[in-house]
Amino acid sequence: MENSFEPKVLVAQVSETDRIAFYKKTYAHVAGGVLLFVLFEYLFLQSATIVEFALSMTQGYKWLLLLGGFMLITNYAESTALKTSDKNLQYLAYSGYIFAEAFIFIPLIYIAISYTNNLDVIKQAGIVTLALFVGISSIVFITKKDFSFIRAGLSVGFFIAIGLIIAGALFGFNLGLWFSVGMCVLAAGSILYQTSNLVNKFSTDDYIPAALGLFASLMLLFWYVLQIFMSRD
Questions:
Q1: Using one digit for the tens of pLDDT, what is the confidence trace for 188-203?
Q2: Interior CA angle at 64 toward 228 and 178, to 5°?
């Protein structure tokens, strides 16, 4: 409780050595999140009951309920990780978010595997996603610019996307390839924004919430890159 009043030191205010140490911790936690996601996904796919339940939630209003629940978990995890200095609670929030992310991915991963009878599409999408993630993140470190100004544009874009997703679920139309491309652009912008926050928003002790934000943007990009790969003839 006594730590809650200690002033935070922004990453931009510390030495280059401390800054690099913060970046290493953050990206190590992103990598750890990816490994935990893969583990959760593997375990989910071993259960026919879980897979059937997840697939049943992709139709109409059920999909909206699932997305709504996922968004609530996302908001709770992000706010918990940011508002508490208790590392155990931060790790719990991060792990809970990864668990929810893995669950919502079940239908897409299952269909992708069924689509090719192997993991080729998933591997290809994963490689492209990681390459884009590294490339977009490097823009911030190379230019050293503050990209916080794109937040308003991202917010508008995501609200439009949510509206289209709701309309598609309610009226049963496919959003199509170009929607996936547009969402990839939004996800790329989110990665740019989250990477910029590493320096301009977070303190040296905030590597877990920083990793959570980056992981969320990475998985959003992976979702739509995978959909693009699956849409190929």
A1: 999 999 998 887 888 8
A2: 25
Residues 8 and 196: beta-carbon distance below 8 Å: no
Q: In 3-state terms, what secondary structure has residue 15?
A: coil
Rounded CA-CA distance 64/70 in Å is 10
Encode burial over 172-201: b for 16+ CB neighbours within 10 A, e otherwise.
Answer: eeebeeebbebbbebbbbbbbbbbbbbbeb
Flag whether pLDDT at 148 surpasses 90. no
| Domain layout of the chain by residue ranges | 16-231
What are the start-end ranges of the H helices in 57-116?
A: 60-83, 87-116
Answer whether residue 41 shows pLDDT above 90. Answer: yes
Tell me what pLDDT residue 2 has: 41
- Which residue in the block uniquely carries the two structure tokens 């409780």? 1
